[in-house]
Design goal:
Layout lengths: L1 H66 L6 H26 L12 H13 L3 H14 L4 H13 L3 H14 L5 H12 L3 H14 L2 H8 L10 H6 L4
């Protein structure tokens, strides 16, 4: 039995010798394989976590951008702009209202008579635009001067604008019931417009205030279409 036992031990030793080298050579391969698998799992986990984190950050940024969007603020900004524009217009209108009638202080050396003389000079030279400018400027300082109003009417009449002239003649004649010139000039303006009845009526009033009006009427070209009328001849009959 000992020999059989010995034989079995030899056989077992030979088997161990055949299989041992295989085991020694395959063990590192299995370790490397396991390490690679573990590494792959870890890398995959990190990548997955990174992807989720990236999507989460992008989602937060997009949400923040939407929350910060100026869409909701547009109506308020538009309303504020409209209010600012309205305020600017109101301020501009108020500024115009304040500045419109304001004029530089009239120098002490300038008087209404000075303006009248300068305007008459321009009128004599037939520079009607400068005459009108002079009288109009003076009217800002001397608003109720009947002579300025009458002379402005005379300029418009000379420029062929009898309808505008009538407005100033009436305003001038309304200041003083004794004025002759604006009433006489009303006769001239209505005569130019062909309204003979009104022209004769105003001429009669002017001549009743001053006989000098008869002398003016005898040679005034503005009254040319009244000549030959019995009423006209009767008014200036002495001439």
């Amino acid at each position: 039995m000992s020999s059989i036992y010995d034989a079995l031990q030899r056989i077992q030793a030979e088997k161990s010798a055949w299989s041992s080298p295989v085991i020694k050579e395959n063990s590192p391969v299995k370790g490397k394989t396991a390490w690679l698998i573990v590494s792959a799992v870890l890398i995959s986990s990190f990548c997955t976590a990174g992807a989720f984190y990236g999507f989460s950050v992008m989602g937060q940024k997009k949400t923040a951008a939407l929350n910060a969007s100026p869409i909701a603020a547009v109506p308020a900004a538009k309303e504020a702009g409209l209010e600012a524009g309205a305020t600017a217009r109101e301020n501009l209108s108020a500024d115009v209202r304040v500045r419109e009638p304001a004029l530089p202080a009239l120098p002490a050396s300038e008087t209404v008579d000075g303006y009248l003389r300068l305007g008459e000079q321009y009128f004599t030279e037939k520079d009607y635009d400068k005459a009108l400018l002079t009288y109009t400027k003076a009217l800002h300082y001397f608003r109720k001067d009947e002579r300025l109003l009458n002379n402005i009417g005379s300029v418009f009449l000379a420029k062929g604008q009898a309808d505008k002239a009538i407005h100033y003649f009436k305003e001038s004649s309304g200041i003083s019931s004794a004025s002759v010139e604006p009433v006489y000039n009303l006769a001239c303006a209505y005569a130019v417009l062909g309204e003979k009845a009104k022209a004769v009526s105003y001429l009669k009033q002017a001549c009743s205030r001053s006989s000098e009006a008869k002398t003016w009427a005898a040679s005034d070209p503005d009254l040319a279409n009244l000549r030959g009328l019995k009423q006209f001849d009767r008014i200036i009959g002495a001439q």
